Amino acid sequence: MSAAAEHSIPSSVKIAPPPAELEREPLVLQNRSIGWISDHIAGICEGEAPKWWLPALIMSVSLMTMMFGCIAYLIATGVGVWGLNQPVEWAWDITNFVFWIGIGHAGTLISAILFLLRQKWRTSVNRAAEAMTLFAVACAGIFPVIHVGRIWYAVWWLPPIPNNYDIWVNFRSPLLWDVFAVSTYGTVSLLFWYTGLIPDLATMRDRATGKVKKFLYGFFALGWTGSNRHWSNYEKCYLLLAGLSTPLVLSVHSIVSFDFAVSQVPGWHTTIFPPYFVAGAVFSGFGMVLTLLIPLRTLCKLEDIVTVRHVELMCKVILATGSIVGYAYGMEFFIAWYGGNPYELAAFKNRAFGPYWWSYWWMISCNVICPHLFWFKKLRTNMVFVFIVTIFVNIGMWFERFVIIVTSLHRDYLPSSWGYFRPTWVDVCTFLGSFGLFFTLFLLFMRYLPMIAISEVKGVTPQADPHHPQGGAKHGGHH
Amino acid sequence: MKFIPPVCPEPETGPQYFRSPEAMANSAQLQEWAEREFPAGASELTVAESRRDFMKLMSASFMLAGFGLTGCRRPTEHIYPFGKQPEGYIHGIAQHFATAMPTRTGAIPLLAKSSDGRPTKVEPNPLHPDQAGTDQFAQASVLGLYDPDRAQHFKKDGKIAKRVEALDALALISKSAAANGGRGLAIIAESNSSPTRARLQAAISAKFPNSVWANYDAVDSTIHTQAASLVSGKQVTHYFKFAAAKRILSLDCDFLGSEDEMYRYTRDFAKGRKISKPDSAQGFELISRLYTVESLMTLTGFSADHRVRVAPSQVAAVAAQLAAEVLKQGSSSASLNTVALAAGAKVDAKWISECAKDLVAHKGAALVVAGRGQPLAVHVLAHAMNEVLGAFGKTIELHDAPKSAANLAAAVGAETVVVLGANPAYTASETWNQIAKTAKTVVHLGSHEDETGKGASWHLPAAHYLESWGDARTSDGTVVAIQPLIAPLFAGLTESEVLGHLLGNPTANSYALTRETFPSLTGGALDEEKWKKFLHDGLLEGSKANAVSGSFNWTAVSTAISLATAAPAPSKDKLEVVFHRDASVDDGRYSNNGWLQELPDPITKLVWDNAVLISRETATQLGLKNGDVIAISANGRTVEGGIWIQPGMADFTLGLALGYGRKWGRIASFEDKSVGFNAYPLRTGTAGFITGASAKTTGRTHPFICTQDHWTLHGRPVVREANVDQFLKQPDFAKHMDLDGHTEFLAKNPDGSIKNIYEHPYKANPELASKSHQWGMVVDLNACTGCSACVIACQSENNIPIVGKDQVSKGREMHWMRIDRYYAADPKKKPQGGTVDAFLSNATGSQGNPNTVNLVERDELQATKKWIDDPQVVTQPMMCQHCESAPCESVCPVNATAHDDEGLNVMAYNRCVGTRYCANNCAWKVRRFNFFDFNKRPIGGGKMADTFFKLDIGLYKGPAGVRPGDEVDIISMARNPDVTVRMRGVMEKCTFCQQRIEGAKISQKVKAGASNDVVVKEGAIQTACQQACPAGAITFGNILDPNSAVSKLKQQDRNYSVLGFLDNKPRTTYLARIRNLNPLMPDAKIWTVEEYRSISDPHFMAEPAAEGAKKGVKH
């Protein structure tokens, strides 16, 4: 310390701030101090819950209970309680699965890819986004499990467990790849999220008042003391996990897309699916992150940490991925025509103009038209507007999966077998209920764990920059 | 012959080994078990308590389609091994007995399969000279045997009575009739060909000369006999020989569908349509040609090369014109005054003259047939043409027929009425009411306690034909045996037994009565050896009827024609109504049969319903759309039913299927709602059609459930066809119609075959393939008529459950095979399409403009399009294709569906978790998923689920949900023990009847012994569909054997794979359909192969060049 003191700049020297046009908008506004950040973020979990929290939780839990009720009914009775039928053997079940998996993509993308790319703005949103990923994966995981006809055998026969008949799983099946892809993704996401949480858990432990809280936070903080060795190990581990997660961002939805691309159903059997699914997943994931964070930043008064700039940046990601998705839609049609396969062309004509034409145009309006509004800065900085658009992005992406799955299946090769799918109340309630599960988990998360990565945000405050006039240890050292 | 295990007479010697204390004691139970003919339970069911239990425990016949791996009626309490194996009995190996199912005009010779004492399947008797399959009714009759709603009690005035009392009542009737010569006694029976019945009938009329014997059939075919007798001057009936006919004209005669004997006609007709090789020398003589004049769209219309649709009353006029033309062109010396009758026929004169020309050109090989519903004049005109065409003796034979009996009205006024089998209270309520008014005693022998049975003083349960002894004559006169495979489940009586009792024989039993008739059939005394052979073969060899020759009575023909008057053409206000025999319920007798109710109608593909069939034009003029309920009134009577727009219907004609709208029965009036509506009240007598009806809308709609919503092929060459001349020019045309016909751009191997990215699994790993057997199937689309007997055969063989109307509406029918039916239109009639307006009308679901085509057709708008008025129709049996590179196999995550070494795509049901991915990836959509426990639970979910929770179906109780008592035993009786009963959540599909394959392989291995001759011999295996198919359209066999029938068919040029371009390499292939259009006919829609590709595509836009493709100008 003494050496540092010797080299410290005399107070008489004035350092002029960089010219305004070179100044980046700070990631934390209002010169919030490091102490304020700790207090403010940890404060969400401490003290009394905000007034809206309990009613929101009750509603979510009710929805979740409804879903589990539906699932119990489904398992007790048969998959026929859904509206599935002969040509359309998958409908809302797999639509919901792909929808939720897609939502999960934003978290890993933000936490892993943006981390590797040194995008510092990720720190304000990554924790919530990662949590959202986990909860979305949990919601997603339910559907492929319950959609099977005999769940009591599926749990035994889908994982590659050796049995006395020497029957092995079928490694050629994309559904099996799904099992691996989704479980790997879920596991790595959980580890990544938990690793990132450790320093903040320690903060929570240190601030905790009750014994139980202190014990639990302490237990999960794994004895974190904030020593240099801890930080060094932590950073290495985090980097490694980020590297491990990055390919998963691309792989999991590519593999989910193989469920369709590997088949021979016209409208499914296309090579464009993997990149298009990944882009769509990121698109929907960012949509959902914004849907969650825009109200939260107001409700929890986080405007200085989750700033308008954050929202704007995410809108740009939505714009970019939305354009990719729109391009893919167009390219599918082009290839269907250019490929000269009449069955393929018929499938796409049917998609746009057939009995499910309304779902297709819902998808186009939400996914292709909506994001292009974000070309306008005025619109993407208008929080209410962005919130509404992200809702439509979510709706559009659900319809995308519905369109791919149902419109392709309901009219495939032999016109004799063409049919129509109508959902039943069990379909609808199971899907709505999955939002209950999602929001229940999220509400519990925001109430009991720091919703924003405290330690990381501190690192990107303007003051954290050693060159900042108020930065570094110049005034008062570490907080 | 039934084998009764003999009791070992002499004491066993040597050391004795016992397997149980009972065996050591040689207990009475064991003795009884060894001795009794039928397993325990069969004969005990006559005891009242037991019967009540039975009634309680049994559920509807869908449950009989049910659950049960036990699959036998052996006593579950005490099972002992045979101390000494009875000779000829091997446990688990089914036995087959020859029998026959009696029909109105003949019988279907059968070989019934007995699985451990219970009949489980019927198959055609291969020894019978007809060599035909069966119809759907015969296949479904097995379920009828185990129908829980069958009459189970003798009843007096609706109350359960003892059997003895009922027999006493019959004796009393006999006694009083004997006293007064039968005055006041009327017997109403259905037509029947049984020699025993004829003998007893004669005995009745001899003993009771004053009694009345009335024959009554709701679907009456006696007109055929009447016409044949009239023109020949002898008491004869017709015997059509379609196989010998090169040119056939059908005058409203649905000989491939609703006519009696359709199964034999179909086989004969198919013989004339099969092609072994493209023989250019034969030209249009290659196959037969069928001209049809009809009002409804029928299976015959499906197969017709030239078809005109006219209202039923106008058939006579067309027949008169045709007859006049045939007489003229055939330079017949006879003359008929047909001018008056022919007036008003609105058929192209060229159609008439060219058709007549073609017929005359085939003298001796032409046949004209008239339909059962048509009046006498049409029949005699048909025979007049037959006479000119030299058909008698060649394509039509006359056989002796019994004298016709009185009709139902003759029974009016009788004091005592005995009804044998018929159900006049339902099918002829007006006449029956008159009879019932004066009758003091009504005795009803019926399989069900139906409308007549409920009102009868005495109701006697009738024995099923599989429970009866009897005899019958098939249409060619051959006497066939009816043998029981099981003791009557409900102690029912046969018709002959009732007649025996009426004749005063208190111990009459059908076995003795049948035996007594036998000597008169063989001549001389009863020859035990002949009798044994009769029972073994199921038929009496050499009893075929001889053709009767007679001089054609032109005068009678003239008289009959002059008595007929030309009917005015129908109009919007004066509609005509056709009453047709239903393909599912016949005249109503099968309306409680779940298999038949769920069988998609071969024409409309509707299930669990009948509809008012109507043409597009009529519906438009009446302002109706599909499903509207209309009230049809005629002669002061009205019935109401929903309409179904049927392509190819005659205008201003309504088609009403008989036999629906029942008020009883778990299936017939499912959940207390009648299935369909009752058309009988509108009918006068047994008329085939009525005129002058009016229709008005009721404002209500009826939900119809159709298993094939989409009518057209959408330009997809799934069914491939060409006309004879194009086929002769380019025999392998079928191979060039789909994407796989364009391989010029694909990379090739040095040997010219297409280079695949992945090698064929059998080529890559030759050790995986069996060197003995590789199974394959060929379906000849030229033979298939679409009759759907195969669908029921498959259901019966493979334990396929029914699911109920509600579940079919959700697309969850379980049939492993289906008959796809597509309509095709003349490309020249195709309208332009694809406009924005068309899209908008599609999007909004408005009726649409009949002159435009929607960009993407919506199912409900099909019925508004003009092109459906005169469609061509094709049918295609569709079942698992057993692809060599099966798309279903690669996507199953748990390896539940896999390939075996003999080329079968097999399902391991136990391994299936039901991801349904396989079904999604199947391009043919032949996989079926068991969404609920259709085998285990009642349709509709039972009362609690339905009433209180309004849930889809009852809750599943899991393994704990055991059915009470021995219900499982009962409902499993119709089950094939060789086939797994699948539970819910499991995917299932056609297996090529793997159980039969394995059975044949095992028996061949047993035969082979030490030798290595394990290859199953050609013909040893028939799949259930193949066996039942009356047309012989399905061939199955070993494709490794180059001489097998299936290999030879696969060598044919017409052979193609449906969706072959997907490179899944299906083992099921199809032989392209060949039409035989007469290029001179005005309606000859002779199209190029390219046009055939697009005929079914509503978006086909005729290019200017295609307009030049005039008839006769090809390529």
Main sheet attributes: strand count, strand direction, barrel closure of chain A: none
Q: Which structural class do you get from the secondary structure elements of chain A?
A: mainly alpha
Radius of gyration of chain B: 30 Å
Tell me the total number of β-strands of chain B. Answer: 36
Helix content of chain A: 55-70%
Quaternary state, please?
heterodimer
SSE order of chain A: HHHHHHHHHHHHHHHHHH
What strand order characterises the main sheet of chain B?
A: 5-4-16-15-14-6-7
> How many helices of chain B?
37
Describe the structure in your own words.
- The complex is a heterodimer of chains A (479) and B (1115).
- Chain A is mainly alpha-helical and 479 residues long.
- Chain A has helices at 2-7, 34-45, 53-77, 92-103, 105-116, 123-146, 151-157, 174-207, 211-221, 228-261, 273-299, 308-338, 342-353, 357-369, 377-380, 383-410, 425-448, 454-460.
- The model of chain A is unreliable at 1-6 and 473-479 (pLDDT under 50).
- By secondary structure, chain B is an alpha/beta fold.
- Helix content of chain B is 27%, strand content 16%.
- Chain B has a 7-stranded mixed beta sheet with strand order 5-4-16-15-14-6-7. In chain B, strands 19-23-20-22-21-24 form a 6-stranded mixed beta barrel. In chain B, strands 11-10-9-12 form a 4-stranded parallel beta sheet.
- The longest helix of chain B is centred in the first third of the chain and has 18 residues, at 163-180.
- The model of chain B is unreliable at 59-79, 940-967 and 1095-1115 (pLDDT under 50).
- At the A-B interface, helix 3, helix 7, helix 8 and helix 13 of A face strand 27, helix 28, helix 29, helix 30 and strand 31 of B.
